[in-house]
Write a structure and sequence with these properties.
The structure holds two protein chains of two kinds.
Chain A: H1 2-15, H2 42-56, H3 67-70, H4 74-97
Helix pairs in contact in A: 1-2, 1-4
Chain B: H1 2-9, E1 13-30, H2 46-49, H3 54-66, E2 74-78, H4 84-95, H5 102-107, H6 112-121, E3 127-130, H7 136-150, E4 156-162, E5 180-186, E6 192-201, H8 211-221, E7 225-229, E8 232-240
Parallel strand pairs in B: 2-3, 2-4
Antiparallel strand pairs in B: 1-5, 1-6, 4-5, 6-8, 7-8
Classes of the chains: A mainly alpha, B alpha+beta.
């Protein structure tokens, strides 16, 4: 999970071209979309969504009320990615066993 | 056949309009010879700055430099091609059936620079974005001039930007050879007056340079300028105050 969190931090820094920001600057539980945290905006959220879809084939439902929670911090994003990766692996295993 | 030639050679001129534009301050940014640089817009906070293309940075740079720190200004933006480098990249992405970048998409609209300027300066004044073919520069300046005429107490920031279209478009008429941006503060306490005249004419002597480049050369070198194209002759006469 630590590795995944670091990976997502790098993904966000590169995708959003965050100048002078390193993974160390983004605490795992820091609010991403808050002026007191990283201060990202709604377009950034869409941009992160596109990047996560491309890299992890993540499925994000547009009107899911949980999205705000999923996108709150790096920790939450990592949990979301991890859960979906595990679900996809499980599905593959089941298909292979059939 | 002979009628057509006669019509072409007869220079029928009709003065359409003439007006004077008070310019308090102006700023120009252009590529150096064989040099492709990006202007410094450190006056914009980092979280907004990272979304800006080179095109947008050029626009915001000249807007800031000519603004004379006026707290509020009506903002007029004009460009013939808009952010054509980014829009072309988007078209390539679409052709490859790739998802578009939301940031690039949101910044590709013609009024994006006006919006970013408004956010950066916390100025909620109205703005307008204009594109009018090869005469975009002139019509944008006209829009700014007439807004100032109707609201003499409100300064107008007029910004024009164009970049060379990517090579995929091939050669186009009056091709831009380098990127440039012009910012003009139309306001009282003018340092330069520019008198502009539009004349309708049937002529085949279209200018070979871009309209904005003709104007810019005049401004930089303190000489009068003119440009012909799209059935119109534009004359700009400069007088220092």
């Amino acid at each position: 999970m630590e590795q995944l969190r670091l990976e997502i931090k790098h993904l966000i820094i590169n995708t959003l071209a965050l100048e002078d920001t390193t993974p160390d600057d983004i605490a795992d539980d820091m609010a991403l979309f808050d002026a007191t945290g990283l201060g990202l905006d709604s377009i950034d959220a869409l941009e992160i969504g596109v990047a996560l879809r491309k890299k992890y084939h993540l499925t994000i439902e547009a009107n899911n009320a949980d999205n705000r929670e999923h996108f709150y911090s790096i920790s939450n994003l990592a949990k979301l990615v991890d859960a979906q990766l595990k679900a996809a692996q499980l599905k593959d295993t089941q298909l292979n066993n059939q | 056949m002979s009628d057509q030639i006669t019509t072409k050679n007869t220079q029928v001129s009709t003065e359409l309009a003439k007006w004077t534009i008070p310019i308090r301050k102006w700023a120009i940014w252009q590529d150096g010879v064989d040099q492709h640089t990006t202007p410094d817009v450190s006056f914009i906070d980092a979280n907004s700055r990272r979304k800006l293309s080179r095109f947008a940075k050029m626009a915001l740079k000249v807007a800031h430099d000519c603004s004379d720190d006026v707290p509020q200004a009506h903002f007029v933006f004009a460009s013939q091609h808009g952010d054509i480098v980014r829009t072309t990249e988007m078209l390539f992405d679409l052709a490859r059936q790739e998802e578009l970048s939301p940031t690039v998409f949101s910044m590709s609209v013609l009024n994006a620079c006006a919006g970013m300027y408004s956010i950066a300066k916390r100025d909620h004044s109205p703005s307008i974005a204009i594109s009018a073919g090869a005469s975009s520069f002139g019509y944008g300046l006209l829009e700014g001039a007439f807004h100032h005429l109707n609201h003499p107490d409100t300064p107008v920031i007029y910004v024009y930007v164009d970049e060379t279209p990517p090579s995929i478009y091939g050669d186009t008429a009056r091709m831009l050879t380098s990127a440039h941006a012009i910012g003009v503060l139309i306001a009282d306490h003018a340092t330069v007056n520019v008198s502009c005249q539009m004349t309708a004419r049937a002529s085949d002597a279209d200018s070979t340079t871009a309209q904005s480049v003709s104007f810019m050369d005049g401004l930089l070198n303190h000489h009068n300028a003119h440009w012909e194209g799209e059935g119109m002759r534009w004359d700009w006469t400069y007088s220092e105050r």
